[in-house]
Predict the structure.
Amino acid sequence: MAILQGIIDTYAQFFNWEMWGEVLTDPVSWGLIGTLVILEGLLSADNALVLAVMVKHLPPEQRKKALFYGLLGAYIFRFIAIGVGVFLIKLWWVKILGAGYLAWLSIKYFMDKRKEGQNEEDEEAHGINKSGLLIRLFGNFWGTVAAVELMDIAFSVDSVLAAFGISEEVWVLLLGGMLGVLMMRGVAGVFLKLIDQVPELETSAYVLILLIAAKMLVAVFGVHVPHAAFFIIILLTFGATFIIHFRNKKKEVGKES
């Protein structure tokens, strides 16, 4: 009963206008929301292309509908996940599991990067299996929508965990998460071009994931990193990214000449 009451109290905070006002007038909160949106865009650019591939077998007029329904489902899932997560993240073992999972994501990225180029053909994206279970159960259109929904949920798990590592403020999480979903669908192409231009940004995103995991883990032992301090760390990380990028470009120009 206490757990249920805790979750209800958490959702009640969504309608706390005083807290809404505090977030909207706090520059640090906007900085954290912006970080969540950028991180979502960097991590989800490829995911948006996967979703596009999943609906390509549908007639053109149905593709946008399938992606729209998937987007609607992603928002509902985020709302539920953030509401329940705000309560669960207060439990020390949930923080340890979340930190461990984020650390694994980051470490796996760097391990995979070392093997990059070995299995390029295996990594090529293919369309949805037209004879799959969801298609057989719900038909071509609604089966595709269900598949997109499941993929959205899978993509959202990483993002929601990363969000809780950055902040536990309800409105920061809600605004950052909701804008992040829109970012993934709306400007994924922009982020893909940005990553093509500055490939180091993708690595920086996973460095941030590792830092977020560390922040979540030390919180278990009562060490809380202030939001302002963590935002400065984020800015320094992105600043270092562009410095490294320009140095790498200079080296490439030097080798060519």
